[in-house]
Amino acid sequence: MKSFRPLAAAAALLAATPLAAQETPPAQTVPAEAPRAAPSLVVVISVDQFSADLFAEYRAQFSSGLARLMTGAVFPSGYQSHAATETCPGHSTILTGDHPSKTGIIANDWTDFNAPREDKTVYCAEDESVPGSNSNNYTVSDKHLKVPTLGEWMKLADPASRVVSVAGKDRAAVMMGGHKTDEIWWWNGKAFVSYAGRAEPAMVTRMNANVTKRISEAQEPLDLPPFCQARSRAFQLNPTRSAGAGRFARAAGNSTAFRASPEFDEAIVATAAGLASDMKLGQSGHTDLLIVGASATDYVGHTLGTEGSEMCLQLLSLDQTLGKLFAVLDKIGVDYAVALTADHGGHDFPERNREHAAPMAARVSKELSAKAMGLAIGQALGIKGPVLVGGNSGDVWFSPDLSKADRVRVQAEAIKRYMANPQVEAVFTRAQIAATPIVHTPPETWTLLERARASYDPQRSGDLVIALKPRVTPIAGTEGGSIATHGSFWDYDRRVPILFWRKGMTGFEQPLSVETVDIAPTLAALIHVPVPVEIDGRCLDLDAGQGDSCK
Questions:
Q1: SS3 at position 440
Q2: Is 380 exposed, middle or buried, given 0-12, 13-18 or 19+ CB atoms closer than 10 A?
Q3: What backbone phi and psi angles, to 5 degrees, belong to 83?
Q4: Contact of 233 with 305, CB cutoff 8 Å
């Protein structure tokens, strides 16, 4: 059994990269005055499904990369303010300064009855016009992102600025990188890949070879540090599946288990660090942007939950992995600034939540699926064929084959049936949402309708939007790949930490709410880049004293 050394599990995988060679430096001492010149490199990190609740639970245990960030400007109550708290919408807010209502990224996927193919489901980061494609076998594209990103603002101000985006998911890399990346790489299940026709840097080739070798080898279980031992208890979800006491043992060749483990983030971060080193980011006299989408926390949360030994090991390992990334940048000697946040929050699977003093936690009823609800409505109204299209919650579309009169009947019946279900909190129509003004008040004060409005795009959103009650998990059973998830209107899915750090800055903590749409304008001010468009976010003053970094 391996002792708990954060990068020991991936030593072979990282040996060919600068990441493995460096030690994490001690925490920085800070002067009274923060530096005013623009940094030469901005590093933006999104930790997928890193909720504000997880940050609060583990922050006292961090000792490396995340500990360093906590010496900067700490906003523990950041908000993905919108209702559609999924990966694609969340990532679209981080570097655009806009809510999904402007970015156009209303969900991970949506229904478009005009899509030029039989499959009318459209994935957020695809080009559905590619012949032979479908929403599961797609060509990655940035075409659905309607607004520019920070990287594009930087290039508009200085064409010599470079933008590099590396993530464990294509939608994370694309939505943060935007339309004009110099390098963009994501994990496709087997290797780090990019858009067709892009040359593969030597660093990516080496990393792919190392990852392939690493997956081919079995992974022994990690030892648990004392803090994680108290969280280690096997929870039997069904006769063949348990979670809660895992230590990331993995059979040789199991790429799915590799993805839901600390090894995955180590590979992502190592690739980003290697590209930063090889491309000499921050060393050209122009400010560059390095984007890192650390995806493993989300896969761990979905498949194993958020309150067992697995999440404990994942977050402590991530802390060390980020420390290694910063050590690489320290050795290079560039003046860099860091922003870290998450695309959404999440919460534990309901069976364990019920044991942990949340008896109202439940799985969604199968009768709330659009298919089941549509069948019941069709039978009640005497309408043949599918009536509703959509998922267990969120956006629901009416069949385009319905007459105008039948649409009215279906809408009324759907609202009645959804609202009669004890697991449903609210049902909003397209007209209700569209008539709701966009608000810019503190996000914790928003009504459910205002949260839905921030996710609403008239070209893509559903005819109805369904809000489940708090603590109802929109996964009906434990037989599939995911046992826990996110995506709700509620703050456990909306709240995320937002951290800013730069060597020499005076740190502070602001417990009042801010938003992820505030990150892009804050960084733009830090690097003296004008924001060329009107956005939803505002600049956050990172000067702890009387100065104002937004000026």
A1: coil
A2: middle
A3: -85, -35
A4: no
Sequence-distant (6+) residues with CB within 8 A of 543 are 34, 506, 549
Write the DSSP symbol of residue 223.
Answer: P
The partner residues of 288 in beta bridges, in order of sequence, read: 41
**Cα-only R_g, the chain:** 23
Residue 350 phi, psi dihedral angles, 5° rounding: -65, -30
Using an 8 Å Cβ cutoff, are 210 and 15 in contact? yes
Cα 109 to chain centroid distance, Å, stands at: 15
Query: What distance in Å separates the CA atoms of residue 171 and residue 135, rounded to the nearest whole number?
Result: 13
Asked if 79 and 434 count as a contact pair (C-beta separation under 8 A), the reply is: no
DSSP codes of every residue in 450-499? HHHHTT--TTTS-SEEEEEPTTEES---SSSS-S-----SSHHHHEEEEE
Q: Which residues are catalytic?
A: 87
* Per-residue DSSP letter, 396: E
Q: Which tens digits make up the pLDDT trace of 244-276?
A: 999 999 999 999 999 999 999 999 999 999 999
Whole-angstrom distance, CA of residue 427 vs CA of residue 407: 16
- Beta carbons of 128 and 116 less than 8 angstroms apart: yes
Three-class SS state of 237 = strand
Q: Is 268 within 8 Å of 187 (Cβ atoms)?
A: yes
pLDDT tens for residues 410-424? 999 999 999 999 999
C-alpha distance from residue 422 to each of 171, 465, 471 (Å): 34, 16, 13
Structure tokens at 226: 């004392």
Please report, as a single letter, which amino acid is at residue 202.
Answer: A
Alpha-carbon distance 105 to 107, whole Å?
6
Q: What is the pLDDT of residues 133-179, one digit of tens each?
A: 999 999 999 999 999 999 999 999 999 999 999 999 999 999 999 99
Helix or strand or coil: residue 288?
strand
CA distances from 120 to 177, 384, 395, 462 (A): 26, 20, 14, 13
- CA–CA distances in Å: residue 256 to residues 240, 260, 311: 17, 7, 16
Rounded to the nearest 10°, the torsion over CA 296, 299, 304, 308 is: 30
Single-letter code of the amino acid located at 119? D
Place of tokens 């648990």: 224
pTM: 0.95
Query: Structure tokens of 548?
Result: 């104002």
Contact of 352 with 460, CB cutoff 8 Å: no
Q: Give the pLDDT mean for 290-307.
A: 98
How many angstroms separate the CA atoms of 427 and 418, rounded? 7
C-beta of residue 173 within 8 angstroms of C-beta of residue 167:
yes
